[in-house]
Prior knowledge:
4 helices, Aminopeptidase
Amino acid sequence: MEKILKNNQKLEIRKARVEDAVDLNEMLKTIILETEHFGLEPEEFHITDEEQTHTIGMYSQAPNAILLVAVLDGKIVGNLSFRAGSLKKFAHTGEFGVQVLKDYWNMGIGKELLNYLVNWGKENEHIQKISLRVRTDNTNAIHVYKKLGFEEEGILRNEMMCNGVLYDLMYMGLLV
Ligand SMILES: CC(C)(COP(=O)(O)OP(=O)(O)OC[C@H]1O[C@@H](n2cnc3c(N)ncnc32)[C@H](O)[C@@H]1OP(=O)(O)O)[C@@H](O)C(=O)NCCC(=O)NCCS
């Protein structure tokens, strides 16, 4: 899917391909250093290019999971992964994570990744709900989620610790 951004640049949102593994890993290693909102600490990122290739392959085969990349001028600048539960009772619902490289924030890339996910979820016969957890002080992310129709479902108190500081997470969901 191609989209024209606020600054008129052409953005491509598409499913990740196995040949994206190296670039995707590079992007993830960068974003971990740029934000506290990514789940892993830098020293916890051990995904080899081979493992990433395997992961992308698994996502592309799964009926209720999706791994997206946002590509600008041939460079991966964002990604989103969503996976529904593996047990039957939870196979209709899952959580996603989304990241955009800091240099590219506020251009509309996060919104387009989410748009793609929501449309995919609406068309997917297995998926009925898309959820996420976000730090309550991550105001720009919450702004994007609300814009896409996600609603607050509850607060998980002291759920995340970053550099010794405890943070609440907001649980949000969208029924598709
Ligand atoms: C959250 C994230 C994916 C958003 O990506 P993005 O490409 O910047 O998102 P968009 O450009 O589509 O939208 C950003 C919106 O936030 C708004 N915004 C920026 N700063 C804001 C702030 N402090 N408070 C509220 N809204 C803010 C922008 O105005 C824009 O909204 P608009 O289009 O209505 O004007 C990106 O910031 C990111 O990767 N952050 C680090 C990782 C992360 O937090 N991931 C989510 C974890 S749950």
